[in-house]
Amino acid sequence: MVSGYGLVDFLPLIVHHNPPPRFFAPPSHPPWLYMEIEQLLWQYGQGVREFSRAELHHADLIQVDLKEILLNRASLEYANLSGSDLSYAQLQRADFSNACLMGIKFIGADLTGADLSWADLSWADLHQCNLTGANLSQAKLSQTKLIEVNLQGASLLETSLVGAEILGVNFARADLSGADFTGADLSGANLSRADLSGADFRKADLSNANLYKADLSQVQLRNSDLEEAFFQGANFSRANLKGANLARALMKEVNLSLVNLSEINLQSIALTEQINLSGCCLRHTIFQGAILQNASFDYALMHRALLVSANLKGANLVDASLRGADLRNVNFRNSHISGVNLAQTVMPDGSIHP
User: Rounded to 5 degrees, what are φ and ψ at 60?
Assistant: First the structure.
């Protein structure tokens, strides 16, 4: 207890937001913080908008209208701004770490370089928000509106985006490793050169997405929609694409080593359309039972790939290397297989090629 103050003096200052248990938060605010909040709200009401570098950590600002406020480099860690409106605010490099921002409006706000790690942004509206280089590591973005948001170079390490509304978002060069995009709609998103290693995209829509040179190592893409996605130069090492839709996807020069591509089904795709895996590294890749009619595997490196019972009818395997692969019961009808390396390969009838 601070000398000169009683319990009654501190009762109005208690913040209702409970921070994550990994840190200890003081149960009450010092009197200077209460005065700081009251002064800010009064000055804002008088038309003042410049409050950069304000010390507002643990502040309680629930459902407050602070549109167009300037809080660049302000300290708002552990603050509770649930339901508040900070549309078109200037919040560059502000510290919102561990803050409760549920239902907040950041429409058109500039959060360049801001720290939002461990913050709860569930149900928040980030329409046209600038989050370039922001830190959203382990933040909660469930049911959040991410429409025309710039997240270029941002960190979303192990961030939860389950149920988020994602449209026209720029994730280029962002760190999304370990992020949860289960069921998310990322159609047309820019994920070029992004780090998606270990991320969960099960049942996600990545159709028409740009994943040029993205790191998809150990990523979970089971039953995801990758139709017409651009994967040139991407790294799929140890990824799981079981049951994924890769119709008309461009996957030239990708690394698919140790990938699970079983149960891929292109049977419903027109015969003139194909999956392009030309020149890909497919070492130890699992294609068991996959339907890959008219797929292009020319110049692909498929050492020890598992293709048991796969349908490669009409596929192009010109100059591909299938050394040590398992081709038992594979359908090669009408396939182009000239120049293929079949050394030590298990042939469709079970025999071993010399």
Answer: -110, 105
Is 7 strand, coil or helix? helix
CA dist., res. 350 & res. 106, Å (int) = 62
What's 341's DSSP letter? B
The pLDDT of 210-224, averaged and rounded, is: 91
User: How do beta strands 145-147 and 165-167 pair?
Assistant: parallel
340 sits in which H/E element: none
Q: How far apart are CA 194 and CA 175, in angstroms?
A: 6
Residue 46 tokens read as 């008088």
For residue 8, give every residue at least 6 positions away whose Cβ sits within 8 Å of its Cβ, in sequence order, or none.
Answer: none
User: Whole-prediction pTM value?
Assistant: 0.70
- The structure tokens 């649930």 sit at 82
**Size of the chain, expressed as the number of residues it contains:** 354
Q: How confident is the model at residue 274 (pLDDT cuts 50, 70, 90)?
A: low
pLDDT bucket at 310, cuts 50 / 70 / 90:
confident
Residue with tokens 């913050």: 119
Judge contact between 112 and 93, C-beta under 8 A. Answer: yes
Angstrom distance (rounded) from CA 282 to CA 259: 8
